[in-house]
Amino acid sequence: MPPTPTLRLLPIDAALVRAVADPDDFERLTGATLGGNASLAREVVAQHVAHRARTAAPEEWGAFFASTTDEAPGVVGTCAFVGPPSASGEVEIAYFTFPEFEGRGYGTAMARALVRRAADAGARLVYAHTLREINASTRILTTLGFRQAGTAEDHEAGTVWRWEREARADA
Fold first, then answer.
1. Domains of the chain (ranges, CATH numbers)
2. What is the reported pTM?
3. pLDDT per residue over 124-168, tens digit each?
4. Which of 37, 111, 123, 159 could join 85 in a cystine, given CB atoms 3.0 to 4.6 angstroms apart?
5. Exposure pattern of 41-59 as b/e (b: 16+ CB <10 Å)?
6. Using CA atoms, how far apart are residues 90 and 135, in angstroms rounded to an integer?
7. pLDDT tens digits for 15-47?
């Protein structure tokens, strides 16, 4: 199995929200290209802005674009905290690899980066939800030491599997 790639997380903040409208502006701001995913990136940003408006989640517990760190950095996906940690220190993560980059370890790298950020910020437990079937996401979570911890209800997907692990920087 190839090593997990190294990624840089680009916070979806106010400046990035403005820059994503123009791929050249985005590249000037971030040093990364959107490639053929500019419209998908705009959709991700619109969803993030709507989510933050609904939840009032602080920016540091928001969403990120994930960019490669190689000679020609490009955005390969997006990842996020669904909101800030609960009073008991639990935080939910989500990640999405752009289709042409699937199967290359980027989903694992995004999830790992979020677990480390959560640990560094003092969260106690990180969890994620997946469909109730073995798939790429369940393999990512298993690789990172998550364990299936029952089910939960998702307003879009219905009953889902809940996966948990301690928030530790050694993800």
1. 7-123 (3.40.630)
2. 0.94
3. 999 999 999 999 999 999 999 999 999 999 988 999 999 999 998
4. 123
5. bbebbeebeeebeeeebee
6. 24
7. 999 999 999 999 999 999 999 999 999 999 999
